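Limitations
The structure tokens in this dataset are predictions for the assembled complex, not deposited experimental models. Users should treat interface geometry with appropriate caution, especially where small molecules or nucleic acid strands are included. An illustrative entry is reproduced here so readers can see what is and is not provided.
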Amino acid sequence: MEILWATVAWLLDPAHWQAADGIPARLLEHVGISAAAVVVALAVALPVGLVIGHTGRGGTLAVNLANLGRAVPSYAVLVMVLPISLRFSPALGLDVIPTFTAMTLLAVPPIVVNAYAGIRGVEPELVEAARAMGMREREVLGRVELPLAMPVVVGGIRTAAVQVVATATIGAVVAYGGLGRYIIDGIARNEDDRLLAGVVLVAGLALLVDGALALLQRRLTSPGLRRSAPAGTPVTRPSRSR
Amino acid sequence: MPPMRDGEPLVDWAWIAAHLDDIALRSLQHLWIAFIAVAVGLAISLGLGILVLHRRSLFGPITAVTGVLYTIPSLALFAALIPVTGLSLLTAEIALVSYTLLILVRNIVAGLESVSPEVLEAAEGMGYPRRSLLWRVQLPLAVPLIVAGLRLASVSTIGLVTVAGLLGDAFGGLGVLITEGLQTFFATKVYVGALASIGLALLADVAFVRLQRRLTPWARAQALDATGRAAVVEAA
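Predicted assembly:
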């Protein structure tokens, strides 16, 4: 019980909210690298997922990518990139490059898989109707498939973002800042209050991001879909055959 | 970092050859720690899944709680337990088990609910006692989805064990090699630990796909659907 009060006291201590290693600075580092990784992953993964969902070609690629993504833990990516990136850039190779690489690779599979599954899950009758109305393929994807698949597509982005924010914690292992710093330093210095404060901050941030993106997911879902399938419902039928 | 200077090899093969027994031992430890976590996770999830079958209203709260557990970063959860359970195997297992719950509960419930009422009626008509329906009809029919869940849980647990290696060498399996490699600036050890753990995860993945086909010859046509479906259940 005592340790909990110590943690609260640590979090409330004004000294921990200032200076270069204060909570706001660490939070900024944490969110910064997470956001950069998710944006880069989105730029690559979203078009790929949407296109293979639309054409139906490369579906096994999506499933295999998901399996591979699970089998390769971010911690392994982080430590494997480190020796190589150090050779190329002593300045950024120690912390920024390994963390950024691991986080970007972590974000790609859920985005691709959900974009693919969401588009594949659209009723084929609707797609055919859109084509019969004279829509071009691009319009079919952008104006029919994507709006209908939106909850699932955004669900993938949500999963990616939450995982990245949660996992960016391990950047501290290779000298990156971020909120993981408090955890790693807490363990190293045997300071349980610092350690638990880090845990609270990281877990809180992850839950906050999850909640915020759940709201966004709801916002982006067309009202007609909202009634039939509440946002956040797990997809259970991604590979409806056409 | 000495091995990372120009000219020096990234991988020291002689070291690997001399430490094969150590690597094998760490691999076995790695698998054992992951196995305990998935086995305990399965036992708890089966209990929760059967509970949900009797009281559907519990499904929401159970997935909410396991979902929050799933969201907490692994390093943070390991770390949070240190003041309570110390640097013990128990610390690692509590965290690892809690990560399996969301995947397993969801898949078990989906599996149990996938059995249609007609099938249950038919079973009753054939003389199965009501009480034995769960164990002799519903659970066997739920096996494809349960194994699909076990596959996901095992693969991600094997990955997470490496993170446990940050905390101590009594547990953490191949993660210990990674951590020691980082601390002594020895890239070879880092690569051996990381690549071996990835190899174990991929092996487990393949093994479960095989097991699934073995266990459910009648569902061969649906096997692909079950795994593809599960992959997205986790991602959503």
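Some entries come with short summary sentences. For this one: Chain A touches chain B through 56 residues (CB under 8 Å).
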